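I would like you to sit down with the record closing this message with an eye to the fold:
=====
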Amino acid sequence: MESSFAILAEPNRRAILGLLAQAELSVGELERQLQMSQPSVSKHLRVLREAGFVEPRVEAQRRVYRLRHEPLMEVDAWLAQFRRFWAPHLDALERHLDRMAEGPASSKLTPKHVPSHAPRRAPKRVTKKGRSR
């Protein structure tokens, strides 16, 4: 059996999981939304089903698939050890976006290496001979 990461590495499977995270869908609905053939969607659903990421239920003449959260919790648990590397950056981004949302006065950021009172120079003009004035 493939590892969870090998299964999630395939972009079409991630797309299927993303759609199923929003709602239960039939194979036909997945085909239409992903613009993939029925055999291709079925192949990816089989891999996801065998790994425990999705489960089908029969509804009249069709199978409706839903997401199972347990395998994703295992992936989340493994990723937890790495959150300390990106959490501070996400917190800083959140603070920056909050300042931007507060209004233009708080979102004006002056680069640290250029004092706000520094004069601006006009760009040098280059003559026809390639010399600057």
